[in-house]
Amino acid sequence: MDCCFEYVDVRVDGDEGPILAGFSACIPDRGLTALVGASGAGKSTLLRLLNRLDDPDAGEVRYKGRDVRSYDVLELRRRVQYVSQVPVTLAGSVADNIGPQTASLLAKVGLDAVLADRLADRLSVGEAQRMCLARALAREPECLLLDEPTSALDPDSKSDIERLVRRLADEGLTVVMVTHDQRQATELADRAIAVGTLP
Amino acid sequence: MNDLSGRVGLKEVALALALVAVAAAISRVRKADLERDILVATLRSFAQLLAIGYVLDFVFDGRGALTPIVLAVMIGVAALTSGARGRRIPGARAIALTALTVATGGTLGVLLLLGIVPALPRSVVPLGSMIVSNAMNAASLVMTRLRDDLAASRPEVEARLALGQTATEASAGWHRQALRNAMLPIIDNTKVVGLVALPGAMTGMLLAGASPSAAIRLQLVVMYMLLGGNAFAALMAGRMTVHRLFTPDHQLIRSLRREV
After folding, report:
1. Is the pTM of the predicted complex or chain greater than 0.90?
2. Between A and B, how many CB-CB pairs are < 8 A?
3. B163 and B70: one domain?
């Protein structure tokens, strides 16, 4: 099995001892992989290593067989899009955030086309999270990294986002999702990788 | 004599201490617990000014070649002060030192090259000291504001990085705000000069017996000089601070990420 991402004996130090100590795992190409674990186990840190918002203190992270540090970091981040836990809207309208393909991407993430001209910071949290997904998709990524994408949402928005993420994975995008929700890991994801001790 | 310059002796200085005693007494009565600070400030000001007085007498007395050394010491002390203010930024002292050197060198250079002021210790040292002390405040403001804002806005900054922006692009909004924040006090001072307060250089010249119109001309040069010096310092400090708060791979440095 080819790895899309691979962690090789990764250590990340925190202020009070290691956050991760000798973590190794393979995230296969395609499908939806969940990184599941208790809060503070280092799940988010693992995700941030994949698009190099952070680097390990020891060990190696590989993307398509090569050390992530061997890629141009800006190009890596375009190919590997990251969506944070709390949606971050940039100044301007929804269309300013997403770019030229706003209409089709709004449809893809299930948002009404009239929202294109709305100021991005006027969206509800659920809408904003979907806009962030559309903004990530606008970069035509190979992989999508999601950090607890539903933890800030109400139950309805949560199941909407889950269906959307599932569909993106089914359409061939490699999706890596961090979650503390065991149900999400087993029911939604194709496979789960445990980080630290399970909750 | 209609000026004060020759009339203030050590006796007059001692009498002025009565006002310090008033300040200390108020602190005592109101339990502000500032008596010790007032004492230290008074002693330090006395010692420091006495010392610089002798140094300047020495330099002005035909030893103008020492002028760059006097300025260098001023810049060095200011850089240590500003660097301590920004100590949570790696290399804050180096940032402050570079910013203040560029600000002082650039501004004095323009004044001297255009022949606006004569290249004499008597003009270069006091003007230089005004540039340094103002630029020090500007550099401190830019450094602390930029660092604190980027740390507080970490999720937004990282969202921008994750979308493929460079460190410069991702921090641009906060960078702009920090520059404005550092420049606004001097701009406001320039706007209200003469209306709200008679500024230092002009006050000094008036006390020394110069005509008001001569005092005003010098004051205008000083204000424009300070605007320029602050802009130089803020610009340099801002650029270098951004440079130090991100890694070459467009990551926020860890000390900034972990604290929030």
Report:
1. no
2. 46
3. yes
